[in-house]
Amino acid sequence: MRTRHAVAFVPLAIVSIALADQTGFDEFEPGFLGTTFESGGITFSDNMQFRGEDPLLFAATNCTGTFTGDPAFSPSNTMNSGLWTTGTSAWFVRSHQWIATTGELADHASVELWYDSGADWDGIEVYLEGLVGDNVVVFDSFTHRQTVPKYEHARLEISGVPFERIRFICRGVGPTGDRDGILACFDNVVIEMTACAADFDGDGELTIFDFLAFQNAFDAMDPLADFDGDGELTIFDFLAFQNAFDAGCE
Ligand SMILES: [Ca+2]
Ligand SMILES: [Ca+2]
Ligand SMILES: [Ca+2]
């Protein structure tokens, strides 16, 4: 039997065109996913149930017995922090924080979650943040409240400002002390760039001023000038910008 060998050409500069990266965690068998894992072009990391602890394992759990019919749910899994279960019931697990990124700049992100009412968790602030470096440049939030019946759905969504990573995080202290977490399961994480990246000054047109704005950002070592998203400012960022500019905007 003949074996065919594919030859792959690696382009010098890999240019990221604006695409939505998203995952419903449904390609996995229920189980642990690692302390970091990739799904749908998104890499997840820094999972904690409690503030300051070492990163925990992410997990996928089959929730079809609980959420089937809920339009925010994609069968059959949700993502959980640190624990999973067999069967098809939702598993609300304490979550303090996780971080996700496509490795490229984005300006829109959303996540669906369902949370169980902890007996004394009222007042905890639950955030989805867009980060540049460690700075929060955009966020959405809601306040945890007692729920009847068992659980409540929430959607967190951020947009309008470029960011490198998203961070889900709970902050605050409940009535009985250190309670900066939520009993939750997550689904349908979307991270995307909706604006035209080459329109660097954001005026809706591609002009010489976008080159100047990019050049200035690069000179100022602004992370936004990391156009290829590799974490460094190099000649390849110029090439990526040039390519995106030549490709044009819709
Ligand atoms: Ca799903
Ligand atoms: Ca422009
Ligand atoms: Ca770069």
Structure description:
With 250 residues, this protein is mainly β. It folds into two domains: 173 residues, Jelly Rolls (Sandwich), CATH 2.60.120; 40 residues, no CATH class. Helix content is 12%, strand content 40%. It has three helices and 16 strands. A six-stranded antiparallel sheet has the order 3-4-8-13-10-11, with no helix packed on it. The protein is elongated, with a radius of gyration of 20 Å. The termini are far apart. 37% of the residues are buried. The N terminus is likely disordered. Bound molecules: calcium ion (3 copies).
Question: Secondary structure elements and their pairing?
Answer:
Blueprint: E1 20-23, E2 31-34, E3 37-39, E4 42-48, E5 58-62, H1 64-67, E6 77-81, E7 93-95, E8 97-101, E9 106-116, E10 125-132, E11 135-143, E12 151-163, E13 165-171, E14 173-174, E15 177-178, E16 182-192, H2 208-219, H3 235-247
Antiparallel strand pairs: 1-16, 2-5, 3-4, 4-8, 5-6, 7-16, 8-13, 9-12, 9-16, 10-11, 10-13, 14-15
The structure holds calcium ion (3 copies).
Which class of secondary structure composition applies to the elements?
Answer: mainly beta
**Strand share of the residues?**
35-45%
**Name given to the CATH architecture of the largest domain:** Sandwich
Please give the oligomerization state of what you see: single chain
DSSP E strands, number:
16
* Gyration radius, in Å: 20 Å
Ligand species: calcium ion
How far the N terminus sits from the C terminus, by CA atoms, comes to: 48 Å
| Domains, number | 2
Return the CATH class of the largest domain.
Answer: Mainly Beta
Number of helices: 3
